[in-house]
Amino acid sequence: MPGENLSRDEARERAALLSVDGYDVSLDVRSATGDAQGEGPRTFRSVTTIRFRCNEPGASSFADLIAPSVTSVSLNGRDLDPSEVFDGTRIVLEDLAAENELVVDARCAYSRTGEGLHRFVDPEDGEVYLYTQYEPADSRRVFANFEQPDLKAPFRFEVRAPEEWTVWSNGTGERMQEGRAALPQKGGGGRRAGEVWRFAETKPISTYITCVVAGPYHYVTDRYERTFEDGTRLEIPLGALCRKGLAPHFDADDVFLVTKQGLDFFHDHFDYPYPFGKYDQAFVPEYNLGAMENPGLVTFREEFIFRGKVTRASYEGRANVILHEMAHMWFGDLVTMEWWDDLWLKESFADFMGTFANVGATRFKDAWITFANRRKAWAYRADQLPSTHPITADIRDLEDAKLNFDGITYAKGASVLKQLVAYVGQDAFLEGARRYFKRHAYGNTRLGDLLSVLEETSGRDMSAWARSWLQTAGVNAMTPQVLLNPEGRVDELAVVQEAAESHPELRPHRVAVGLYRRTGEGALERYARAEVDVDGPRTVVAELAGAEAPELVLVNDDDLTYCKTRFDETSLATLREHLGALTDPLARALCWSALWNMTRDALLPARDFTGLVLRFAGRESDIGVLQMLHAWAHSALVHYAAPEWRETGGRLLGEGALRELREAAPGGEQQLAWARFFAAVAGDEAGLRLLRGLLDGTEKVDGLDVDQELRWAFLQPLAAHGHADEGVLAAELARDDTASGKRHQVRCLAARPSAAVKAQAWAQVVESDALSNALVEATIAGFAQPSQRELVAPYAEKYFAAIERVWAERSIQIGMDVVRGLFPSLRDSRDTLDATDAWLSAHEDAAPALRRLVLEARDDLARALRGQACDAAAGGNHR
Quick one: 55 exposed, middle or buried, by C-beta within 10 A (0-12, 13-18, 19+)? Predict the structure, then answer.
């Protein structure tokens, strides 16, 4: 019998056989505190009762459970021998009746990998915090169940916890004490927890969105109230919680503000009241994801609580995530995809709705600029990898599903939905959503269920659109062609569409084409625009014939479609000289994005891209775009620049960053962004000396507040260049003896330029499972520094020797972190490419998900080598 990796075929067979009436889950987590229990993992008791029906009495099936041991199993009153029916991942169920009751008493293990029930000990005060994270299939690590999204059921949770704790779950909780009445609490919990917490039964939901959070969390409450046009009134208790150590930094008022704005927005547009009672939001430690849409108890990574000064982009990003998860209450929780093939039915919609609501309901009115510049960059990269897939993917099993939470499913899917709204009209789209919710509430759907309601509301045939945009992979590229007449006006302007050989589909696009010229004041502004349906290899834009000759032609102006934009020679020459003169922030963001794609595609030398950043980024008004430019410039230097130019490029970036840092407005967010970028690229003695001075107070930059988070940002390059030893880092941890400080220290320790340090870091991550997921992530982040290519080169061979064993022995999350994070990308040579190909050839039978990760890393490396060749050729031409 297969182990953890449930297949789609197995899930379909089980769903055809079974239906679930309800779960009662009782957890005893009092073992989370106190001394360890001796040998083996620390465990807790989990007792689950499942009531379910079988439409073929006498048939056999199985329940899912991953646990160190099972104490007892009872099916319809018959005691089964756990050693005979439980293999560590599944419980065999034979001779089922029409109506069944399964009771499983198990010892389940606390997690240190962020999967299942994660246990975190706060180094600051020794307090223990618990939370669950299940997507796509880790609730079976906490209680016995049928772990697939289409076997929905109501859940009742009961949790025994230490007396001083509070416990939260999806439903409203009440504290119980032996011999005493229930003590109701506001929201999901109260200030002091009794021994037993019992939670209201949920609506029918999938296993992966059930949730429990427990511990001495700091908890803040509020309330949302809404009166609808028919006079009905809705009141939603709101809660927000975090570790006690983060309470001084917790701006819960802003979290509640965005939450209320989002609830208003979705009520206005969805015409379906929020269906899950309360709305708690928990910011939890060592979280693998950005957030998770558990109904009634959304979980977030606690890094969304800002310990230091951050830019507006960070607040916008947090608001987007809050609204993304809120959209899931309808797209994903109320109506859920049948299997992970249609993951886009929740993630693409939530990603689109997060930005749609951010612009429509909050103070972040420029969120579509961030989407065009940052979110789409993720999609464009993913869509050019060998692992690219249609938005509606072929998900064979749970390992496939885990890797499918990618830039295609999220960002490309959201981009395509943005186009769909334009295609069918916003009113028809939203009316389709409303019908979809009402028709399929608490049920499961496939692609056709959504398309059918959109056909109803729009009157359009959705099948051709779905075939082109949802069922094919790859990204098209569009380039303008301009022919001028003797009078210097446009004789013909056409858009040329291309596709990669591997994915030759040329899709239909609705695009805007903008023409730009400089004004008398020097501003580069649009003076003509036309929308056109691009379909096929070449489309003439007849409306622009006769226009004055443009200095810049911007295909996909206003970001109406999903494509890579290219430039004709005149437009590219204009951008080289006048990019900073573009007055429209969205147009600038689109041009920057196009230039970065050209760099990655080896059409623009890396030194040219970094030169554009140094010349024009200081004029960028959108802080999110500026921070993206910093990340791209650093990546261009590390991966795409010719090796012989890297030292020069690093010096130029360091000098430019310092110049912009000193010229930025004191105390402003641009100054903060340039300070962080300067730390990222500083590598010479003068730059490192300035960083040391800013840390010890002997140097000042007017208005720059070097808070604790910025101190750690300055310490990493110092550590990587041998200017901050173990003693310095220990002293800094003493100054910031917190969970966040520990992660920073671990990253800096691993960054030190020493063979012994690298050997220790490698052993801690690859040869041991002692580190938690957060410290594994921090160690990997510090291990390979761009200035240490020769130092880490010997680990290329060790990497290929270890990854199959790591994948087999460790959790999938840790396996993904190791395979992605330790790939020898800094050993960027043909030898590494050959070694990767040799591993792939010798391991054709390796787990498909593992091979996918290695193929993706290989593609990134091959792309980097092509970029380096392009940059080297540019260097020769410059000579």
Answer: exposed
pLDDT in tens, 639-664: 999 999 999 999 999 999 999 999 99
Cβ atoms of 541 and 495 closer than 8 Å: yes
Q: Peptide bond before 508: cis, by omega within 30 degrees of 0?
A: no
For residue 34, name the pLDDT band (cuts at 50, 70, 90). Answer: confident
Q: Could you tell me which residues come within 8 angstroms of residue 276 by beta carbon, excluding any fewer than 6 positions away?
A: 170, 202, 203, 295, 296, 329, 333
- Collapsing DSSP states into helix, strand and coil, what is residue 104? strand
166-169: strand order across its sheet: 116-121, 128-133, 212-215, 166-169
Short-list 381, 259, 401, CA closest to 318: 259
- Can you read off the two tokens belonging to residue 368? 């579509």
Rounded Cα distance, 628 and 296, in Å: 34
Whole-number CA gyration radius for the chain:
28
Say whether pLDDT at 133 is over 70: yes
Beta bridge partners of 120: 129
The H-assigned helical ranges of 131-197 are: none
Residues for the chain: how many in total? 879
DSSP structural state of residue 331: B
pLDDT tens across 321-365, in order?
999 999 999 999 999 999 999 999 999 999 999 999 999 999 999
**Alpha helix (H) residue ranges in 95-174:** none
809 catalytically annotated: no
Q: d(Cα 145, Cα 108) in Å, to the nearest integer?
A: 13
Q: Among candidates 789, 813, 828, 709, which has minimal Cα distance to 246?
A: 709
Cβ-based neighbours of 452, under 8 Å, separated by 6 or more: none
pLDDT of residue 405: 86
- What's CA 431's distance to the chain center, in Å? 29
Angle at 336 between CA 11 and CA 235, to 5 degrees: 145
Could you tell me the two tokens for 484? 């001028």
Beta-bridged to residue 168, according to DSSP, are: 213
First vs last C-alpha separation in the chain: 65
Which of 774, 863, 763, 861 has the alpha carbon at shortest distance from 813? 774
- C-alpha 859/C-alpha 5 separation (Å) is 27
**In this model, does residue 192 exceed pLDDT 80?**
no
Q: Check residue 546 and give left, alpha or beta (phi > 0: left; psi -120 to 50: alpha).
A: left
Active-site residue identified among 325, 347, 399, 551: 325
Task: Report whether 824 contacts 832 (CB < 8 A).
Answer: yes
Residue type, 448: G
Residue 181, pLDDT score:
42
